[in-house]
Design goal:
single chain, alpha+beta, 5 helices, 41% helix, elongated
């Protein structure tokens, strides 16, 4: 009859991986990608948001300092509220991705 390893030794061998070396920890997605709290904090520092009840659209206003930090020209800078465009969302996503990898669907505006 073949002798079988006791359960404890099998579990220990499985935990150690091949060759008796410990397994490499694969990072959790929360450790790699930006969380909702990270995105909210970034937006609070870089953009003002509001919901226009008349037009029923989300609007934004970007502080002047952030226009120049993002490399936008002075002609694009305005202190007026404007509907959120794809360009604004993509610019925010690009700036956020420089700090921490961000999944694009997490930052889209609907």
């Amino acid at each position: 009859m073949d002798e079988e390893k006791p359960k404890k030794k099998r579990k220990k061998a499985a935990a150690e991986g091949e060759g008796g070396e410990p397994k490499v920890h694969k990072p959790n997605w929360r450790e790699v990608y930006a969380t909702v709290e990270d995105i909210k904090g970034f937006q609070a520092d870089h953009i003002y948001l509001r919901h226009n009840v008349i037009t029923r659209r989300a609007e934004c206003r970007i502080p002047q300092a952030d226009y120049f930090a993002a490399g936008w020209s002075e002609g694009q800078c305005t202190d007026q509220w404007q509907p959120i465009s794809d360009r604004v969302v993509n610019s925010l996503w690009t700036e956020m991705s420089k700090l921490k990898p961000t999944r694009a669907p997490d930052i889209t505006v609907q």
